[in-house]
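Notes, Module 5: Reading structure tokens.

Key idea: the token line is not a picture. It is a compressed description, and you learn to read it the same way you learned to read a sequence, by spotting repeated patterns. We will look at two proteins. The first is printed below with its tokens.
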Amino acid sequence: GAVPVPQDFVSDSSLEKVSKRKLAIAKAAASLIKDHYRIIIDSGRTTAALLPELAQKRGLVVMTNSLAIANALRELENEPTLLMTGGTWDPQSEAFQGQLAEQMLRNYDFDQLFIGADGIDLARGTTTYNELYSLSRVMAEVSREVIVMLESDKLGRKIHNLELPWSLVKVLVTDTGLPEAAAAEITQHGVRVIRVQA
């Protein structure tokens, strides 16, 4: 099984500064996390904005495929139990990917997955530029609740890779820049849409 990561294995690279919109989205997403939950945080700047909010949570188990997120988690005063997917390092996504990571995830079950996206297709679901998106599907399959976090400007981007169909998504947390008509269309797919003021 996965083991806690030794300090000397964790990257020293710091997470980039994030926008007010990302922080507002993260605050709303974090409000969905209960103490003692087992969660997955996928790599990405929007999902990384969750980390300061986790300081208020107790007894979390957090799986991630990102060294930057793992490093930031270790800085929290109430450090969660940290699990890493392992796998093959992908420099484009700055995350572990591949079959080993997928096999590791399948050994567990989680309460929630927090994941970003490169785009929103109102009819199909979330989309990505990354060709290595099969890990995202596995993350969703092993989680009871999938929470997508993204800024509204991702709407309308024409990206052919379908990352997660709406059928796998439980909640979309975005900002009020997402038009009400678009939110209503997404809601028709059974997705709860949370729009936050940034």
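Here is the second protein, with the sequence above and the tokens below, as before.
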Amino acid sequence: MRRDEYEIRPLTIADLPLMRAIEEASFSTPWPGNAYESELTTNRLARYVGAWRGGELLGFGGIWLMVDEAHVTTIAVSPALRGEGLGTALMLELLQEARRGEARVATLDVRVSNELAQRLYARLGFAEAGRRVRYYEESGEDAIIMTTPELSDPGQQAREALAHAATKTDEPLPNPEAFDVVAR
């Protein structure tokens, strides 16, 4: 899906029912019902954005801005639209939000079994920084901790620029190695 076919904007409490529907379709253990309400109304660290086509929420993502770090708390795309570049576009918007919040780096946790998400994050400059053993209580699965280089790093900015350009076309993103060539 080309970037001009949808818009990305901040989410509000009015968007909560649509967020919950995507959350429940996306995760085996969705956040509790009141978690996003708190994120959208009282958590001063939280920023959430959604991808919209008309009145339809296609996907959403969120970060916490903590001192000089942005932590990606969630990203979810409607199952029927996965693989269309929406996850990339949402992640790029979250990284821009991180810069606006003066974050130095971005981090996230991802299930060991979620290789598709790991590939997306790697294309955007995230690399494994550690593990949280048995982090996901319902399954006992480990989480991989991933982090970006400094967000001001020219190589990181080049990766994001190429990924952004790819969301404007129907062309797939290049392999992560292609970004390293640009960074040199």
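Summary for the second protein:
- The chain has one domain: 3-183.
- The mean pLDDT is 89.
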